[in-house]
Design goal:
By secondary structure, the chain is mostly helical. The protein is about 60% helix and about 0% strand.
Length: about 60
């Protein structure tokens, strides 16, 4: 939990014109897509490992 003297994790601009907000969102989407493409194999392994651990923790659990 953040303490009073901690810096904010993200500093958001408070008053962007609509065009600037749209450009910022487009940039963040492109950044996210680039990260997903670059780390696709690692992300798949990570999520597969999580799913496998959950199946092993509850082998008789119904998926429904």
């Amino acid at each position: 939990m953040l303490q009073p003297n901690d810096l904010p994790l993200v500093c958001l601009p408070l008053e962007l014109p609509p065009e600037a907000a749209a450009e910022l969102i487009a940039f963040l989407r492109e950044l996210t897509e680039a990260l997903e493409r670059h780390y696709a194999a690692e992300l798949k392994r990570h999520y597969d490992d999580i799913a496998s651990a959950r199946r092993q923790a509850a082998p008789n659990a119904s998926p429904f």
